[in-house]
Amino acid sequence: PTPLNPVLAALGFTAVGKSLLDKVVIPTGYSFQIIYALGDPLSTATPAYKNDGTDGDFDNRAGDHHDGMEYFGLDAAGKPSVSAADRGLLAMNHEATTDEKLSSHFIHANGGTTTLPRPAAEVDKEVAIHGLSVVEVKVTDKKWATVQSSAFNRRVTPLTPVEIAGPARGNAQLITKYSQDGKTTRGTINNCGTGKTPWGTFLSGEENWSGYFTRVAADDTARGGDKSVVALKRYGRSAGGTSRHGWETGGTDDKYARWNISKTGASTNGSDDYRNELNGQGYIIEMDAYDKTKALKKRSALGRFAHESAAFGTPVVGKPLTVYMGDDSRNEYMYKFVSKAVWVAADANPADRMAMGDKYLDEGTLYVAKFNADGTGEWIELSMSNAKITGFAGYKFADLADICINTRLAGDAVGATKMDRPEWGGVNPVTGEFYQTLTNNSNRNVDPTGSSQLAPDNANPRAYADVDGKKGTGNPNGHILRTKEGATVGAFIWDVYLFGAEADADKGLINLSNLTEEQDFSSPDGLAFSPNTGICWIQTDDGAYTDVTNCMMLAAIPGRVGDGGAKTLSHPKKDGTKLDVVTQVGAVPAADKLKRFLVGPKDCEITGLCETPDGKAIFINIQHPGENTKLADLANPDLYTSQWPANASYGAGKRPRSATIVITKNDGGRIGS
Ligand code: FEO
Ligand code: CA
Ligand code: CA
Ligand code: CA
C-alpha cells in the first residue's frame, strides 16, 4: 500500500514533559483551538450553552463524553470530497456522561436526583446527551470553527430509529414491543471507538451498553435458566440491582420501561415487550454522515460484544475486505471480519454509500484470535461449520444469527485467548500490520484466585503490583500488540510492539520496551494511524500513572512484527517458585520514533483522532475533564477537579466539559513532521 504522502522517517517535534496542569500541553511550534464542547448548539435556533444545568434541547446540542471521531471532507459546493482539507464534517461518539451515583450532575441545575425514581425530565436530558453527532467544521482566516447553521449538523440518540442488518436481522432474539419483526431497534448507546469505511461512511462501536439495562432478581428462576439467562450473564447483565442511571424509573412510557428487560407484556408475536431490548445493542453501527435521510444500520455480521473501533485492512482490488475489532472487557477477545464480496475500486466513490455497507458488511466470516507461545497465532472461524461451536456444552447455538448475537459465547466455545481488555486497533498504512491496544487488566495475576483471575500468558505476559503501589495490580499499564496476516486467512504472526510502563520501573518484568521519560505512558486506549504521515497516534485512559501525569497522546513510527525477539519473563510466585512466560517483544523504540506529543487537562481521557487529508490539522477529543468532581461540590467551582475548557476562555460557566480540539503546526506543515 502507498500512503498519500511520503511517510515520516523521524518525528520532528520536541517531546513534551509529563504534566499535572489543568490545561492542554502540546509541543513548541504547534497551536490548538477548542471548537466543539458539550452543549454547543447545532442549529441557529438553539441558544448558546449557559453551562449552569438549565440548558435543554440536547437533541440540537453536542452530546457528552466525546469519544471516537472521523473526518469527512466537503468541497466548496458542499459535496463529499476525499481531498477537502479546509471544510468537512466531524462525526463522533458521545459515549457516556460524568455521573455520581445515578445522576449526570453537570447537566442538572442542582446536580439532579441520586435516588429512585428518577424524574422523567432528568432522564430525558440524560438520554439525549448520549449517541452520536455530526457537525460541520471549516477554516476561515486560518481559524477552524464549527458551522452552527449547517444543514449537515445532526444528533443521533438512544431513541433514534435504527435498522438491524446482516444475519441477526429479523431474528426472534430481536423482537420487542417496539420491533415486532426484529428488523429494527431504538438508538445506539455507549459509543466508544470508531472506524471509517473505504466507501466513506462512519462506523461506531457500542461498548458498555449492558449496564444501562436492569432486570429483577427473580428473573433467573422465572425464566427457568433458559438460553437467554445464560446469554445475559455472559454479557454482564446479572439479575437484580439498578441500571447505571435508573432510566427505567422515569415513567411508564416505553422509552423508560425499555431499560428494564424483565418487564413482560403482551406482544402479538409471543415475545415479551422488552426482554430483547438488550439484544438490540452491542454492535458496530454504520451511519452516512453526509446524508441524514439514510437510516443507520447495525452490522450484526461483525458480532456483538463491548465494541471499540473497527479498523479496515488496506483494500486490495479483487480481494475481500478485512475489519479488525476488539471486545473491551477484562479477559475478552480480539476479532476480525472478512467480507464475502471482493473489493471493487469504483466502490470507493459510490452513488449510495449505505448500499456498500450492505454489500461488504452483511455477508462474510467472523474470526476470533488465539495466540501461541512461538509468535504464531490462529484466527478461528466462528460459524456453524465449526464443530467446536455446534458441540459447545455451554450454550446451544441455533444458527449464524445466534453466533452474531452471542459472539462472546462463540469465542468461549473455540477456546480463544482471553486478553487484557482490547480497546482501539489500527492498521499501519506502510506495512499493513494490525495494532491493538490492550489497555490494562486488574484480573491478571501470577497467583490467580477465583474464576475471573488469569495467570500471565504469552500475549498478556505481565502481572505485577503498580510500581508505586497506589493504583492497581495485574497489568495496570497495558500493552500494544500487533499482528501480521499469514499465508492463509486463519494464520498470523504477532509480537508486542510496546509495553506501557513508568520509565523507572524494572526493565526485566515491567518496562520491557525500555521507555524513557519522554516516552513513558500507561493504559493505551485510543490508537489511530495517519494515512498521511504513517504516524501511529497512541492515546491514554489511565488510572495507574495519574498521580504523576494527566492522560496523554504519543506519536510513534513503528517498525514491523518480529523486529525484536522472544523474551522469557520469570515471575516470582508467592510460594517462592517462578512462573516463566515466553513472550515476543518488539524492538526498543528509538528517541525519534516514539515521543509524547500532548498531555491533557485534569481528570480527562484523550480519545478520538482524525485528520484533514493533507495531514496538516488533527482533531482529538478531551473526554470527561474533571470527572471526579463531587456532586456535593457543584456550587463551588473552586472545588471542581478541572475547570477546563472554561479556564482556556471557552464558553460560559465553570463546569468542565468534554470537547474537541484541533491542532495545527505554526509553519503550516504536517502534524508530527
Ligand atoms: Fe470506552 Fe473501552 O473505552
Ligand atoms: Ca476507549
Ligand atoms: Ca479505556
Ligand atoms: Ca502509579
Oligomer: single chain
**CATH fold name:** Neuraminidase
Biggest pleated-sheet summary:
9 strands, antiparallel
Helices and strands: which structural class?
A: mainly beta
Q: How many helices does DSSP assign?
A: 8
Specify the CATH class: Mainly Beta
- The CATH architecture assignment turns out to be 6 Propeller
List the ions, cofactors and other small molecules found in this model: MU-OXO-diiron, calcium ion
Q: What percent strand? A: 25-35%
Order of strands across the main sheet: 13-14-16-17-18-25-24-21-20
Number of strands: 34
CATH superfamily: TolB, C-terminal domain
Uncertain residue segments: 266-270
Mean pLDDT: 96
Any idea what the radius of gyration is?
Answer: 24 Å
Question: Which secondary structure elements does this structure contain, and how are they paired or packed?
Answer:
Layout: E1 30-37, E2 66-73, E3 87-94, H1 120-128, E4 131-140, E5 143-146, E6 154-156, E7 161-165, E8 184-186, E9 191-196, E10 202-206, H2 219-222, H3 227-234, H4 254-257, E11 284-287, E12 296-299, E13 307-312, E14 320-327, E15 330-332, E16 334-342, H5 353-361, E17 364-371, E18 376-381, H6 387-390, H7 400-405, H8 407-413, E19 419-420, E20 422-427, E21 434-438, E22 464-465, E23 473-474, E24 479-485, E25 491-499, E26 524-529, E27 536-540, E28 552-556, E29 565-572, E30 578-585, E31 594-599, E32 605-611, E33 617-623, E34 659-665
Bound molecules: MU-OXO-diiron and calcium ion (3 copies).
One calcium ion binds at residues 423, 439, 525, 541.
